[in-house]
Amino acid sequence: MTTLDARIRDLVAHAYTHAPAIKGILSAAGLTPADIQGASDLAKIPVTSKDALVKIHQENPPFGGFLAVEMDSLPRIYISPGPIFDPQPPNPEGAEAALAPFQYVGFGRGDRVLNTFMYHLVPAGLLLDEALRACGATVIPTGPGNTDYQIEIMTKLGATGFVGQPSYLGIMLDRANELGIPKDKITLKKALFSAEPYTLQQRFRFEGEYGMKTTSAYGTADLGVIGYTREGVEGFCLLDSIYAEICDPATGQPLEAGSTGEIVVTTFNKAYPLVRFGTGDLGALAAVPAPECGAGQQLLGIYGRSGGAVKVRGMFLHPDSLGRAKVFFPQIKHIQAVITRPGNKDYVTVLLEMQPGESGESIGAMIQQLAEQAIRLRIDEVKVVPEGTINPSERAVKDEREWE
User: Which of 56, 154, 183, 342 is deepest in the core (most CB within 10 A)?
Assistant: First the structure.
């Protein structure tokens, strides 16, 4: 038995005993832990999609039966749309692996790092804060926005690192140029990005023009960081604290290496075990991981979404969130969100097609407020469109962004 097989066998046995949801998933499939002796047996277990996870949580609050430790032992609880309550218990077995992206960039003692991720409700800000401090760096918890102030903080403190979305670092550098700050006065030399694609054009700018060492981390609120980019490696090196499969989105069965399918992850976190969790992202695995990936797998790339949810500014916009608006406003016949990216900024437009005789003039602001409260995502514009504009057979959330 390989080390991987032993880890999977032990994880499933532990989860079956301590996490009622995992026991329920296995029992419904006619399985016991004895049926799962290694990686090849995982395919016997049904994939738990994000939608299914939300449903399980709603039926059995607060954690859906996935929590395998006492609730009183949790240092923090985060909230994702759904709502899903995301426990963040200590995970000693995965602590070292989680530092790999930060160590690759070289964060350590002497670095002062702007952490521009949000610190409340969602886990990104605090999780990355903890990893930076574990590497010895000093964190400047600025959170998102306030660009001029961020630049002032950077220059006065001599910040050497940046953590956040690549588009926001681009905005900061553009603004610094407008303020007359020359490139040689930009002190940032290390950056870790997440929550959106990191384009080649951005990499050439940050690394080529500004001499930074950078990486892009791939992760989810449910799983934390899954993998990260390294120079010379296609796609992402996956952390050895998780095991990934590429599966047929319809059947959940694993596909051959190199094939495109849904990224399905099992996390070796015995306090909050997710076994065969369907991320909804499409990707492909390398048959033989690059040596730089060490004991982890290599994800060749992320090629879109298998479901209807779309990530916008680090948050998922799900069709169900739009559907709730129709419950509150029956005068709406069809509703659709369109995501564009003018000026390298995500722009969310909600289109409303009204029932006959309804104008919709008075509900635009209410729709906007409702959506922002439900998904914690800013809606930039609400438009009432003529009858027949929205094709109900199309996706409720259309992603029309172009990434350079």
Answer: 154
Bridging pattern class, strands 347-354 and 381-384: parallel
Residue from 311, 287, 308 nearest 298 by CA: 287
**Two tokens, residue 223:** 């799983």
Phi, then psi, of 303 in degrees rounded to 5: -115, 20
Q: What is the architecture, at CATH level 2, of domain 315-399?
A: 2-Layer Sandwich (3.30)
pLDDT of residue 375: 61
Pairing of strands 224-228, 236-238: antiparallel
H-run or E-run covering 299: strand 298-305
Distance, in Å, from the CA atom of 289 to the CA atom of 307, rounded to the nearest integer, reads 27
DSSP-derived secondary structure letter, 18: H
Token pair recorded at residue 316 = 């998922």
Residue 49 CB burial class (10 angstroms; 0-12, 13-18, ≥19): buried
Residue type, 180: G
**DSSP code at position 272:** S
pLDDT of residue 93: 81
pLDDT of the residue at 260: 87
Q: Are strands 242-247 and 236-238 parallel, antiparallel or unpaired?
A: unpaired
- The predicted pLDDT at position 327 comes to 65
C-alpha to C-alpha distances, 91 to 12, 94, 102, 172, 209, nearest whole angstrom: 16, 6, 18, 35, 39
State which H helix or E strand residue 94 sits in.
helix 92-98
End-to-end CA distance of the chain: 45
Who contacts 147 (Cβ-Cβ below 8 Å, separation ≥6)? 171, 172, 175
Q: Read off the tokens for 49.
A: 């999609």
- Angstrom distance (rounded) from CA 404 to CA 135: 33
In the block, which residue shows the tokens 């929590």? 67
Structural tokens at position 343? 């000026």
Q: With H, G, I as helix, E, B as strand and everything else as coil, classify residue 298.
A: strand
Considering Cα of 386, then 390, then 391, then 392, what sign does the dihedral take? negative
The single residue listed with the structure tokens 């992603």 is: 399
